[in-house]
Amino acid sequence: MINTDEIKQQLLTAYPYRIELHAHTSPASGCSRVPGDRLAENFKNAGYDAVVITNHFGRGTLVDYYQAKSKEESLEKYLADYDLAKQTGEKIGLKVYLGAEIRFENVNDNDYLLFGMDEELLSVAYDYIDKTPEEFYTEGKDSRTLFVQAHPFRDRMTQLAPEYLDGFEVFNLHPNHNSRIAFAERYAMERHIALRTIGTDYHYETYENLCATRFAELPEDSFALARILRQRDFLCEIGDALIL
After folding, report:
1. Type and span of the H or E element at 8
2. Which of 183, 189, 149, 141 is nearest to 169 (CA)?
3. How far apart are CA 39 and CA 96, in angstroms?
4. Strand order across the 167-172 sheet
5. Max alpha carbon distance in the chain (Å)?
6. Quick check: 196 and 112 in contact, CB under 8 A?
7. More confident position, 240 or 242
């Protein structure tokens, strides 16, 4: 008889590092209610080793919401929350990676997660917010960056052609939205989208520990995180269950 508890423990031991791939902070994301320092503390207390800050990145945020007068001011305000979370994480032993949730608002309401980012690449992404996702993917995206469609079956979402994507966020665990995760998983499987990610889409306190991505090693930076995701060397965890 197969001892499933023993197999599960072996997997947990082999992939000990818990990372949140989709998290928003306040005030950089107007819909979030958790400042960066508090987010870092919450995830550390919940037993995570790292978190990716994926605040909203589009004209509605970077220009309208921030009331920014320049690209430089927009990026400065965007990065302030990430910097606060990162500084707090360094003090308490939590890795904080830079990411983004980019939207091309002249096209539709789709959102796309960016993994494998730094400030220079964020500046390049800014230049594409008034263009199309296809243009960004073919012209603007760095080869080290992953472009993953977020919650692709939520209301008002359409599915971007797989040839312009690096992956699909199949499991979006935001409790206040219906992301139709079964449809997302079936769509990704039928269209052979190999990279399927999981994320809490964190906006509110008490939403920690809904899910995690488990890694065998703790990535040194955002680019190492993207590399491991691309290799699909990770496990997905929802509550106490492992998704293989």
Report:
1. helix 4-14
2. 149
3. 10
4. 56-57, 100-102, 112-115, 146-149, 167-172, 196-199
5. 66
6. no
7. 242
Q: How far apart are CA 116 and CA 168, in angstroms?
A: 16
- Written as six digits, the tokens of 197 are 């990610």
Closest CA to 86 of 129, 132, 55, 121: 55
CATH number belonging to domain 17-243: 3.20.20.140
Q: Are 107 and 137 in contact (CB under 8 A)?
A: no
Of 212, 154, 208, 171, give the one whose Cα is nearest residue 34.
208
- CB-side exposure of 98: number of CA atoms within 13 Å? 20
Q: How far is it, in rounded angstroms, from Cα 176 to Cα 103?
A: 20
Q: Can you tell me the distance from the alpha carbon of 188 to that of 169, in angstroms, rounded to the nearest whole number?
A: 9
Q: Give the span between the Cα atoms of 174 and 125, in whole angstroms.
A: 25
Q: Which of 3, 66, 29 is nearest to 203 (CA)?
A: 29
pTM to 2 decimal places:
0.95
Question: How does pLDDT run across 54-78, given as a tens digit for each residue?
Answer: 999 999 999 999 999 999 999 999 9
DSSP structural state of residue 26: B
DSSP per position, 65-107: ITT-SSHHHHHHHHHHHHHHHHHHHHHHT-EEEE-EEE--TTT
Task: Please answer whether residues 140 and 127 qualify as being in contact, where contact means their C-beta atoms are separated by less than 8 angstroms.
Answer: yes
Q: Could you read off the pLDDT of 189-207 as tens digits, one per residue? A: 999 999 999 999 999 999 9
